[in-house]
Design a protein that fits this description.
mainly alpha; 3 helices; elongated; transmembrane; transmembrane helix; mitochondrion outer membrane
């Protein structure tokens, strides 16, 4: 029952951050890729059939948009 009392609101604020010496500064080192490289890498995750279907869907949507909103 002592564990419940230690976690009660009456025990005060609880720190959820790691100590300063345990915080990694490696987050900035992961930014070596450009946005274009990341997007190109995403295309490799999907099979050709999915990419082809997505391309056809976008082309159809653009075509319909142009037809509906052309003067």
């Amino acid at each position: 029952m002592a564990a419940v009392e230690e976690l009660s609101p009456a025990s005060g604020p609880v720190s959820t951050q790691p100590p300063e010496d345990e915080i990694d500064d490696d987050e900035d080192e992961d930014m070596d890729e450009t946005l274009a490289e990341r997007l190109w890498g995403l295309t490799e995750m999907f099979p050709d059939t999915v990419r082809t279907a997505a391309d056809a869907s976008v082309q159809c949507s653009v075509s319909l948009f142009k037809k509906f909103y052309s003067p």
